[in-house]
Each structure stands twice: as C-alpha cells, then as structure tokens.
C-alpha cells in the first residue's frame, strides 16, 4: 500500500457505545467524484498523533471490479476523515 493522505467525505454510523462504522466515502480523482462503498472492516485501532486521538480502520472495497485493501483515519479532535493508504 502507498500513502495517499487525502481528505475524504465519509458517511459513517456512530453507535451509542462510541464506536464508529464507516460505510462509504467520496473522493475526487481526475476532477471526477467517485463513491467507494466499504465492503469489510478488517481491523480498528486508536493511535495518538501530536496529542490527537485518531481512529485507524483497515478496510476492503471493490474498486473498478478489483478488491482493494486500504487504510482510513478519523481525526477525533478535528472531525475529519483521511484516506491514508491504498
């Protein structure tokens, strides 16, 4: 996987217990918007970066008929989603 570090728009389900389940996200590629639906969440973890807590999700999705592994991050302090690796 290569590091992309690109902000994305995410639709996610926030549960009562505080857990977050990402569902699908939108990204701009070649001046076109692409919607990617998350097929499976493989793992979740919390890391600290410069004092900020960040949820890290390793997921799979089918993109252009190919299953891809990727990593997305949710910055809790700044309320933003980042496509980190793909």
UniProtKB/TrEMBL annotation:
**What's the name of the protein?**
Uncharacterized protein
Q: Which domain of life is it from?
A: Bacteria
Organism whose genome encodes this protein: Clostridium chromiireducens
């Amino acid at each position: 996987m290569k590091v992309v570090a690109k902000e994305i728009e995410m639709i996610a389900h926030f549960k009562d217990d505080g857990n977050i389940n990402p569902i699908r996200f939108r990204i701009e590629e070649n001046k076109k918007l692409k919607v990617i639906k998350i097929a499976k969440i493989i793992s979740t973890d919390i890391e600290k970066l410069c004092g900020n807590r960040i949820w890290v999700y390793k997921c799979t999705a089918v993109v252009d008929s190919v299953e891809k592994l990727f990593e997305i991050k949710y910055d809790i302090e700044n309320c933003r989603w980042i496509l980190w690796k793909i």
